Fold this sequence. Notes:
- The chain is α/β, with parallel strands linked by helices.
- It folds into 2 domains: 7-132 and 304-334, Alpha-Beta Complex (Quinone Oxidoreductase, Chain A, domain 1), CATH 3.90.180; 138-275, NAD(P)-binding Rossmann-like Domain (Rossmann fold, 3-Layer(aba) Sandwich).
- Helix content is 27%, strand content 27%.
- It has 9 helices and 16 strands.
- It has helices at residues 49-56, 123-131, 133-146, 163-174, 186-194, 208-215, 233-239, 283-298, 315-323, and strands at 7-13, 23-28, 37-46, 66-67, 71-79, 91-95, 103-107, 113-115, 154-157, 178-183, 199-202, 221-226, 240-248, 270-272, 306-311, 330-334.
- The strands form 3 sheets. Strands 3, 5, 6, 7, 8, 15 and 16 form a 7-stranded mixed β-sheet that branches. A 6-stranded parallel β-sheet has the order 11-10-9-12-13-14, sandwiched between helices.
- It is globular, with a radius of gyration of 20 Å.
Amino acid sequence: MSTIPKTHLISGFENQGSYEEIKTLEVEAPQITTGSDVIIKNKYAGLNFIDGYFRQGVYPSTVRPYIFGREASGVVAAVGKDVTKFKVGDSVAYLSGNTFAQYTKIPETYTQILNLGSGSLSEKEYETYGGIFLQGLTALTFVNDAYKVKKDDFILVWAAAGGVGTFLTQFAAQKGANVIGVASTSEKLEKVKKLGAKYVINYKTEDVVARVKEITGGKGVIATFDSVGKASFETSLEALSRKGTFVSYGNSSGVVPPLAITRLSPKNITLLRPQLFGYIVEKDEWEHYSKFLVDSVKSGKVEFEITKIYPLSEYAQAAKDLESGTTTGKLVVKIPQ
């Protein structure tokens, strides 16, 4: 067991609200209190829209201060006396709350963690592992579990140049699907094409439904992966074909209003609101998907790009950049050591 300092730095909020509520705070650091505790000293943590939803009050939270972060890479800094699967010095990557912090505590039994061994990783590897899992695994589980993408399917991917969108585009294209990528600029659309999208639509200058009908010969897409939410819901619904599947998974433009379930009947539409964690509860599920993702990135089969790294103290600006809709790829924060 190594010594953990009494306090550590975190990024979080005391009050829900605007970007001004984001604070860098010095708070009590987690300590070993049971034999099964594992404490990780974080190196890099990925930005994700879900933190904005908690900050804005879209999702409830009660613990204060609320600590941002849902994924990270780092090094095991301390373990309880009964821990056998981890030792001090092991490099790890994992999914968990409270990762925008110098230290995070999890139990040894926690399943959503990948032990990368005792050898020190390169800085680039820590960067990659710190930001790959939440968005990469979301996309991977969605194209296999939420809707099982098949060869020749016509698939609509919203925000296709964003974090989850880039993974969705690549994984669906690799399955032989005809990916229709939706984005807001010509630069983003060019990127989406390079990732494997067969068709692209600029939603700011084109009629998405009209283009989808043109591309699909009037039938519509068999599945839409929609992270935008309120602003795109009706468009996604209209763009779907008979027996189509609507995978709604984000609120970047606002929460989708309540709808009458009978609206799904005319085309026998399946509507899902999945979350990643429902697909990786069991250890074998986590291991299957996480290893597939890591192997895909290592082998170059899937492109993963970290476009900007922010110091933890500048998370407020990072959140503004992410939520503005102007970024591409993955944003991460570097945790002070």
